[in-house]
Amino acid sequence: MNIILLAGGKGTRLHPLTQDIPKPMVPVVNRPWLHHLVEIVSVLSASNIRCAVHYRWEIIRDVLLSRVKGGVPIELVLEREALGTGGAIKNAAQGIDETFLVLNADIVPGIDLRDLLRFHRDSGAVCTIALTRVEDPSAYGAVELSKQAQVLRFIEKPAPGKTSSNLVNAGIYIMEPKVLDYIPAGRAVSIEREVFPKLISDGLKVCGFASDAYWNDIGTRSGYLRTHWDILNGRMALRFPDSSYMRDPGQNIWVAHGVHVEPGARLVGPIFIGEGCMIRSGATVGPRAVLGPHVKVNTGAVIRDSVIWSGAHIGANSLIEECVVGFNTIIEDSRTARAELIRSHKLWENSTTLVTV
Ligand code: GDD
Ligand code: MG
């Protein structure tokens, strides 16, 4: 089976963190998200994975190349101009003449992809859209389904009152090559705004596969943080990056090698601490914190509900809550930060490890 990953967006909702790293490369429990995703989709015995890239694509190339050797071949398909979700599919699917899978590269798919494929084959649809349930569909593609699971309407980012459905597009599609005929070539096309509505109005069979399995979106601060806590709490099963992490199961504390915790520092699970971190006396890490490699937490600092990327320094007596702190960022002493995305350095200016792989 051919698999296309849509990985070319600008990730504006995670700016400024995505100013120097594309969204699919953000670390999730200290590993680039795309590495996790490639592993998740590999259950389908993929013959080939094509990654449709544009924004900051060189970083995707460099980090993917460092991935496990001998795995499924991954091709990067570069768009010189961003082609939108539909244009990216058309461009990346060249030469594909059988059923294929497409995924937005910023979603966390707990759903069983084999069940989805079986459902698609049984339904005879040209396209099956995996669906998840949310409270407020306005940030997603809302879908209205018939009793036979056929998609009657697809409304991208519906304004309030536009639909009563809370079933939304999970960003996972099984497609027949026929769908490609409905995507105009050579220009930016939105699969959600143009192609799905057109397939439906032309009477082609588009089905929805509603699932209550785990699903999340790492493309916003809250979704990114929530994904971490769900992984640490075991709600979403992911392979952790390195078997040398030690786990204290009673407290859900994961610690890599080379971590130095001074006496008088407090670790409150669930937390995940990358290699070479230093946590000074009087600092508190957790509950719910992930520290990338070589993070330094100074005395009296408190970090909770936050993810800190590699090489950051957290100043003495600072309070970091519900934040994501970018690579090598320096947080000054006594700063209070709540619900922020913080980046103080360009990645390349002060380089330590980019992301551990
Ligand atoms: N190659 C390429 N080229 N990829 C792109 C482009 C492009 O021009 N534009 C966006 N993408 C990729 C993004 O990197 C992301 O992985 C995916 O396509 C979806 O784009 P987002 O910008 O993240 O869309 P969204 O989150 O607002 O909405 C989409 O996802 C929701 C689920 O999270 C839509 O598909 C919604 O219908 C859906 O509910
Ligand atoms: Mg998204």
Helix content: 10-25%
Return Rg in Å. 21 Å
Spatially, the strands of the biggest sheet line up as: 5-4-1-6-11-8-12
Number of helices: 6
Largest sheet: 7 strands, mixed
**How large a portion of the residues is in β-strands, by DSSP E?**
25-35%
Secondary structure elements and pairings:
Elements: E1 2-6, E2 27-28, E3 31-32, H1 33-41, E4 48-53, H2 57-65, E5 74-78, H3 84-92, E6 100-104, E7 107-109, H4 113-123, E8 127-133, E9 141-145, E10 151-156, E11 167-175, H5 191-201, E12 206-210, E13 215-217, H6 221-232, E14 246-248, E15 253-255, E16 260-261, E17 266-267, E18 271-273, E19 278-279, E20 284-285, E21 289-291, E22 296-297, E23 302-304, E24 306-308, E25 313-314, E26 319-321, E27 324-325, E28 330-331, E29 336-338, E30 341-342
Parallel strand pairs: 1-4, 1-6, 4-5, 8-12, 15-18, 16-19, 17-20, 18-21, 19-22, 20-23, 21-24, 22-25, 23-26, 24-27, 25-28, 26-29, 27-30
Antiparallel strand pairs: 2-3, 6-11, 7-13, 8-11, 9-10, 14-15
The structure holds guanosine-5'-diphosphate-alpha-D-mannose (GDD) and magnesium ion (MG).
